[in-house]
Structure formats: C-alpha cells, structure tokens
Amino acid sequence: MYPPNQPFETGKLKVSDIHELYYEVSGNKDGNPVVFLHGGPGGGTDPADRGFFNPDKYKIILFDQRGSGKSTPTACVEENTTWDLVKDIEKLREKLGIEKWHVFGGSWGSTLSLAYAQSYPERVKSLVLRGIFTLRKSELTFFYQNGASHLFPEAWDEYLEPIPESERGDMMLAYHKQLNSPDEAVRMRAAKAWSKWEMSTSKLFVDPENIARAGDDKFALAFARIENHYFINEGFMRDGQLLEKQAIDKIRHIPTVVVQGRYDVVCPATTAWELKKVFPELTLHIVPDAGHSSREEGIAKLLVEATNKFADL
C-alpha cells in the first residue's frame, strides 16, 4: 500500500434536509478519478484508505456515507437507504465535475459499488471489489444467526449476552429493539456488542487492535445502528437483486476485479463465487490465507495491483 497522502480539498455536501456528507480529495489534482466506498454500512473512512491508490496517478475521493464518520447527523437512520446512497455518489461526482471515475469498494462497499454501477454504468470506468456482499437473507443469516457462530463460539457468546434468551431466535430484530431503545445505556451496550462481534471475526487471526475499535462510542453507535437498520430492511432491495441477469448485463462491459479472502466469515466466498458465475468476465482472486479485512497482506497486495492495472484506463 502507498503511504497516506494529505487531502488537498475537504468539504461538506448537503444531500437532503437532514444529511450532510464529509468528503475529501487527495493524490494528483489532475489524476484519474477514483471513489472509495467504505464498508458497514456505517463504518466511515480512514486516512489509510487512501493507500490503495498511487497518489501520482489517481485523484482519490473518499467520503463518509450518511450517518457515518464525519458526516452529520451521526448514526442517523432516517432517510438512509441503499438508493439514497447511490444518489449521493452521483451528487458528489457532479459536484466535483467528474465525467467518469473508477469505483473501489469492499464488504458493504462492494454492495454499494454494484448498486451504483448498475444504476449509472455510463459513469464507471472500472470496479475493484473486495469481500463480496449482496445482503441476501442467506448471507445475513450466516453471520448474524447461525453459521459464523460455529467458528467463533467465544465471540458469539459475547454477542448473545445482551439479548434475552427468549429473543435469540431473531438476533437482528432483537438488536434492532435495543439499538433503538430510549435508554442510552441500553443503546450503547448493544452497539458495542454488535460491533465487537464483527471486529472479532474480520481477520484470519483475531486482532486486538481491530476489536478495540468497538469500544469507541461514536464509531460503535453509527456502525451498529446503521448496519442493523439496513439488514432488517434487507438492503432495501429484492433478495439477490444485485446478482440478477438483468442487473449484471448492465455492467458486463466494465473491467472488474474481485479480491476475496478464502476464510472470510463476514462475507463468505460463496457470494463472490455466485457473482463470478453470473458475471464470468470479471477477474476473481481468492486469497488462500486471508479473512475479511482489506488490511490483510494478501488482500491489500492484490487490491493495489488492481488499482495500478487500471491507473491509466
């Protein structure tokens, strides 16, 4: 990865009566534009995210999605849907005067990248995706109800702990109740437990520094509330919508690279494989010694190779 370079432009973009988005631009002012779509939803961006792109070649655009990071109001789920975010990306492109750009996204960012590209294929030069996630019921059930729990039983017990036994038959719904409780202490306890579950499972080797992120009040509340809001609403789309032939046909012409950790339990490899089957033109790399995180060595290396490949496109 490249050392993080400093933004030469930062700003706020008002996208609704409620929401204002933080964005930044770094790298080469006259470079090839690329937009980074962060995960979660609700995760926000980090300065290290600039490091996937050669700053001499790329004009690097990062922004925090509704309710996330430095965008305001924080942790807000009102007027916050997949299709609101897709429109926000277009508003940001128009504000920055960019005709077409490269799109880079991992985890939820891969979902949003696919949704954006299928909505505005004429605006996308390439797709670099990691940890494919399409919000199908089977994917959500595996991670939040029954699946990953068999691999991380000790972390799963901590995730179960805030929820009464009588409500554990639908963990997402039970968490929704607590994350929207009028009691701030209940909301925060649930937010930290929800976030810790994902932070505990996102790397092949459990990373205490990653888990520590779940202890940050602002991050945990935005991450948990917004993720849960999207998931109980099934991403505001039909089950499997992003993998349907009609949707994929719109983006077949877009050069696409997918990097997937073999042992990713947050977004298991089966979804990347399903995408490859309906979109055989894409290049799929399955990293044999990696989990979910973009920071794992094998994944980061292939992501940078992909952005270097498209730098002059």
UniProtKB/TrEMBL annotation:
Annotated compartments: Cytoplasm
Biological-process GO terms, alphabetical: proteolysis
NCBIfam families according to UniProt: pro_imino_pep_1 (TIGR01249)
Boundaries of every AB hydrolase-1 domain copy: 32-294
A Pfam family reported for this protein in Swiss-Prot or TrEMBL: Abhydrolase_1
GO cellular component: cytoplasm
Species the sequence originates in: Coprinopsis cinerea (strain Okayama-7 / 130 / ATCC MYA-4618 / FGSC 9003)
Coiled coil: none
SUPFAM superfamilies referenced in this protein's UniProt entry, alphabetically: alpha/beta-Hydrolases
Residues at the catalytic site: S107 (nucleophile), D264, H292 (proton donor)
Similarity field: Belongs to the peptidase S33 family.
Cited InterPro entries: AB_hydrolase_1 (IPR000073), AB_hydrolase_fold (IPR029058), Peptidase_S33 (IPR002410), Pro_iminopeptidase (IPR005944)
EC number(s) recorded for this UniProt protein: 3.4.11.5
Keywords from the UniProt entry: Aminopeptidase, Cytoplasm, Hydrolase, Protease
Protein name per UniProt: Proline iminopeptidase
GO molecular function: aminopeptidase activity
